[in-house]
C-alpha cells in the first residue's frame, strides 16, 4: 500500500493551528500521555491536573523556542484528528510533534505523515529529525521507517534522524 493513499482514503488535510484549537489540543495531549500516567497511582483528577499543566508548559515551550515553526492541525474531513508541528532550518526538518487521536492511531496515518515529511526532505535535500521519549511505543514506527538514534539519550529523550542518503 502506498501510505500517501491514506490521505485520499481518509480525506486528510492540514490547516494552521489557531487559538480556537486549544481545547482540542489539550484533549489530544491528555490522550497521548494518559497510559503512562495510569501507573503513577494518582487519582484521575490528579492526572488531569498534572497533564493539563504539562500541556500548558509544552505549548509555551514550543511557542517560544519554535516560534517560526509550522503548527498544523490534521483533519479528516472537518474533524480534528491530530497535530503535526514542523520546524525547518537550513539543513533539517524537525518534527517537533506529531500526535493523533486514539481512534485513528495504528491505521497508517502516522506512516503516511512521515512519508510526506520524507518527501519534503528528499526534495530540499534535508535530513529529518525528531526527539522521542525512550519509552514511547512510536519509536518502533520511527525505526521501521528508517530513523536512527543519534548519540545517547538526553534525559528521557532520544534524538533520531532520517536521511535519504
TrEMBL record:
N-acetyltransferase domain boundaries: 12-165
InterPro entries: Acyl_CoA_acyltransferase (IPR016181), GNAT_dom (IPR000182)
Gene3D superfamilies on file: 3.40.630.30
Residues making up the signal peptide according to the UniProt record: none
CDD domains xref list: NAT_SF
Protein name as catalogued: N-acetyltransferase domain-containing protein
